[in-house]
């Protein structure tokens, strides 16, 4: 756990140092870059005679987000990095993971016209640390790094009317699902869709959709949405389509302080028959450096 926080903090420090050096130079390339990150802290405590109910708790979270987009003539190359990790400690309970995400995406595009592109892309989705299902007296391992992990490729067309919004549609989108621990099925019988005894599931014939919306609503308020859909042609059924929706609303209080509200919804039969939902509210220290043009 300490190693994860150290890695994220080193990443934030390195990004800050690079930006400090680059700000002194004039950018003569075809790149637009943005890096943001921070640390959030939540704490609550109650006296022993507090009658309203409550549990002493402390939660810490870190995040690091970056994008680097290249554009020249009809060619584009867009890259996104999105890391989140958080823990929470409630009184009389062991430390638990509250948030965990690794998302990497790269896309090469060729312009058809001002709003449409051909594209080929590759993205990776997993988590940093082990995740557990807790009972009154024990905990059960249900996930960890590369358990599961998803590597999704796509070839198709993209609708991108402006810098805020993009919609990718791919009729050919092979995906590889990884579960590298061959004993994990003992705790997770579905094994995230991977056959028992195997470490990789390959889905070649599939359709995928990815929608990104990154909007600066005002000088101090930013809204980010990412929706992903995946449908396998081989066992196609409406209730078997995978959906994932990430939402984030960030308000800048000062140059260093911000408040963020995040939400994640997942529907995937290989994980659970019902919709999974998580939500978080945090106040923390943040930084942001960007060469993207400011929205008016």
What is the strand and helix layout of this fold?
Blueprint: H1 2-22, E1 31-44, E2 57-72, E3 75-90, E4 96-111, E5 116-126, E6 131-134, E7 139-143, E8 149-159, E9 165-172, E10 175-178, E11 200-203, E12 206-218, E13 221-232, E14 242-252, E15 257-267, E16 276-290
Antiparallel strand pairs: 1-2, 1-16, 2-3, 3-4, 4-5, 5-8, 6-7, 8-9, 8-10, 9-12, 10-11, 12-13, 13-14, 14-15, 15-16
Q: How does this model look, in words?
A:
The protein has one domain (2-290): Outer membrane phospholipase (ompla), Chain C (Beta Barrel). The protein contains one helix and 16 strands. The protein has 296 residues and is mainly beta. It is flat, with a radius of gyration of 21 Å. The two termini are 41 Å apart. 22% of the residues are buried. The mean pLDDT is 87.
List keywords for this structure.
mainly beta, Outer membrane phospholipase (ompla), Chain C, twelve-stranded antiparallel barrel, two-stranded antiparallel ribbon, 1 helix
What is the compact description of this entry?
This protein is mainly beta and 296 residues long. The chain has one helix at residues 2-22; strands at residues 31-44, 57-72, 75-90, 96-111, 116-126, 131-134, 139-143, 149-159, 165-172, 175-178, 200-203, 206-218, 221-232, 242-252, 257-267, 276-290.
Named at the architecture level, the CATH assignment is Beta Barrel
Amount of beta strand? over 45%
CATH topology: Outer membrane phospholipase (ompla), Chain C
Regions with pLDDT < 50 over 5+ consecutive residues? none
Write down the Rg: 21 Å
Order of helices and strands: HEEEEEEEEEEEEEEEE
**Could you tell me the mean pLDDT?**
87
Global geometry: flat
């Amino acid at each position: 756990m300490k190693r994860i926080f150290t890695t994220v903090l080193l990443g934030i420090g390195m990004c800050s140092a690079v930006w400090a050096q680059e700000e002194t130079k004039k950018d003569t390339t075809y790149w637009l870059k943005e890096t943001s990150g921070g640390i959030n802290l939540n704490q609550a405590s109650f006296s022993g005679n507090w009658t309203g109910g409550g549990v002493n708790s402390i939660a810490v979270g870190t995040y690091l987000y970056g994008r680097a987009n290249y554009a020249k003539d009809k060619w584009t190359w867009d890259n996104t990095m999105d890391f989140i990790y958080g823990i929470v400690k409630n009184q009389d309970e062991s430390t638990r993971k509250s948030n965990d995400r690794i998302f990497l995406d790269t896309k090469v595009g060729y312009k058809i016209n001002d709003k449409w592109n051909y594209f080929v892309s590759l993205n990776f989705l997993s988590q940093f640390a082990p995740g557990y299902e807790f009972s009154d007296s024990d905990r059960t391992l249900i996930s960890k790094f590369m358990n599961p992990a998803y590597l999704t490729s796509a070839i198709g067309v993209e609708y991108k009317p402006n810098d805020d919004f993009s919609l990718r549609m791919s009729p050919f989108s092979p995906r590889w699902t990884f579960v590298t621990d061959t004993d994990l099925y003992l705790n997770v019988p579905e094994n995230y869709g991977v056959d028992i005894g195997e470490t990789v599931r390959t889905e070649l014939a599939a359709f995928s959709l990815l929608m990104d919306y990154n909007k600066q609503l005002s000088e101090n308020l930013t809204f980010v949405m990412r929706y992903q859909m995946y449908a396998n042609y081989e066992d196609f059924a409406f209730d078997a389509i995978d959906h994932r929706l990430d939402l984030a609303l960030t308000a800048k209080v000062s140059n260093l302080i911000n408040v963020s509200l995040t939400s994640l919804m997942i529907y995937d039969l290989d994980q659970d028959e019902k919709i999974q939902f998580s939500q978080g509210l945090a106040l923390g220290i943040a930084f942001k450096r960007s060469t993207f043009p400011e929205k008016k």
